[in-house]
What does this fold into?
Amino acid sequence: MIAETGHFALVLALAVALVQMILPAYGAWKGDHAMMRVGTPAALAQLALVAIAFLALTLAFVVSDFSVALVANNSAVDKPLIFKISGVWGNHEGSMVLWVLILALYGALVALFGRNLPDRLKANVLAVQGSVGVAFLLFILATSDPFLRLDPAPFEGAGLNPILQDRALAFHPPWLYAGYVGFSMTFSFAIAALMEGRVDAAWARWVRPWALAAWLALTIGIAMGSWWAYYTLGWGGFWFWDPVENASLMPWLAGTALLHSAIVAEKRGALKSWTILLAILAFSLSLVGTFLVRSGVLTSVHAFAVSPARGVFVLAILGVFVGGSLTLYAWRAPMLKTGGLFAPISREGALLFNNLLLTASAAAVFIGTLYPLLLDAVGGPKITVGPPFFNTTFVPLWAPLLVMVPFGPMMSWKRGDIVAAGQRLIFAAGAAFVVCLVLYGVVSDGPWLAPIGMGVAVWLVIGALSEIAWRVKLFTAPAGESWRRARGLPRAAWGTMLAHGGLGIAVAGIVGVTAWKSERIVALPEGGTTSISGYELTLEKVGTRGGPNYDATTGVVRVERGGEFVTFLLPERRRYPTERQEKTEPAIYTTGFSDLYVVLGEGNRAGEWALRAYVNPLAPFIWLGGMVMALGGLVSLTDRRLRVGAPQRARTKGRSAAAPAE
Amino acid sequence: MKLSAFLFALLFALTPATAFAVISPDEKLSDPGLEARAREVSKELRCLVCQNESIDDSDAELAKDLRMLVRKRILAGDTNEEVKQYLVARYGEFVLMRPPFQPATWLLWLGPGAILLGGAVGIVLFLRRSSRRDENATGNPALSEAERRRLDEIVKNDPPE
It folds into this structure.
């Protein structure tokens, strides 16, 4: 019954989504307010129905209803409750239901909180959002039904892939999807604007909170995924340029560009059509990511050709939305009025430079990820595009971008003064220079570029703080005056500081781990010792212990530093009998500034155990930086100007605004 | 020449000197210099049965075999490039993590740069066009006949205060 209820709710949701797609848009076209108003209840009903389906599926997982094929294939009775729940989206069908749930949630949010939107804009936004819902609900019902029954039902399920049985990973997909799908909101606003043929400052301000929310969720999702990869995959890497990772990085890069260009559109009325294009691109790249991950095309183009139903369906969705929106863009964008003028050296110019490099790096990831697939599809040679390609293309694009970041907020609009901006950043530049020189003096190993990388990190962090210091006139005005100014600063300014400073922290972590990682691979008998970067490790004992749904071979590693006891580390090799799989579980001791990372390998006939130890300097900074960036997004999101809502749209409908699409 | 050498160094400087690996202790060569070379080569070679992992990262059986093979070739006196070519001869270019620069990969290697360049040119044109529009707007305020008539009408119709 539960499964049928869920299935029925999905079908109803599709019907409601169809209504939400057609009626409000038709109403907006004909100027029929009653029809336009259908959007709001339809969006709410869609959320309710998809939520019912999602809860039904979750319930089936929680009670281990193995008569539902999906549950039987992806869950097991002895799995801890949290992984039964996360198992709902730990598979293709369930993750698509989560995708649609988040989509419906965004739609409902704009229906509820979009009261200050003009009726026609709101109707069109909800209609576009409804059309995305129609596409993906159809996809689920036609190719990926999560509620298929199994007869006879097995007594035990096949379990969940052990590497997915992890607390951080449990919440990685919801954040990631909140980001991916969040860009459907900016997409809907962009399409609605093109349908109306007008973009103004108010539009840009309505879009910004959604872009911020999506960006912030995607940042958290990517950081969590990278952290998970770091402590799960067993060799301490944090980013692998894997196509699945690239799939999330592309919309992030486009979304970051969108966030910045929307500021120009809001504050200066310039770059409007570019902002619209970025909104379309960010969501298109989210769809590309969904296609890459969900079609099976990654394992091999041939695997995709063997069971093409899902892949072709997502490809069709991709074609309709990307092709349709770009066509609409090509048709309507020239009608958008170009706004405020600016000199190349200005805040606008800096943001444009940011956009150029971010878009180019998104393109680099796009090309590198899809090139082998396309080459293979057209009968070319089979090639591999691995990390060396991405490192060689990414570093030269990002180096100038990172150097420019602190300049941006220091420039004034329209016509900036780069010398004055440089003077305000003199302290940051000095600090970066000193750090760089000291590192060259102190650290002898590692690549020669690494100290410069650390200098850039310091430049970013101090540069971000300098902006606030300059704005509140720290040290140049009395302390009381500075305090008053600090309290008067808009939250968005604090958000900028956090996001840019967090970027610096993450850069420090990435440079530290990449350049100064040390490693020790040894075979140790019980009682044997080894040392790495000042730590002495003793493999005291190797024993077995049981977990809730696995058995583990556990090494007891005593860690000392300079003869002082530091901690015990317990790296494990786990065997999951239900899933018939193994997983290594590294043990990590962190000082906050560096990680000691220990992995237990296999034993040999001589009774020795392979032990791999790494010291990863500054590793925690990578994710700390990511979280600070996300916090910056959150602080910006609470800016009064965004909460209170946008100013009224200009009432006059002079020649200046292109005529609405009627 | 100097510049390209600099760029080359810039591109490779951030590639990690010591990377993550799942190699087991018994695979390691006793000579640390040769072992370091083996690691460097391993990172550039794909584990053919894995998804996007180098043989240095993978714990698949095949990766282990290839790691042994790389070490055997290095002990036999091959240069890094010769080891790679040896594997390319056996497995094709698919085994290289860094695709070679050849006609089939021109678009791949030059694409990002071309987009950057195209974007930069676009921005320059945009800025020049808008600054010209600026000059027109301030330097040439002439109205068309129709506009002037419309303005007069507005002024005339405005009720006096």
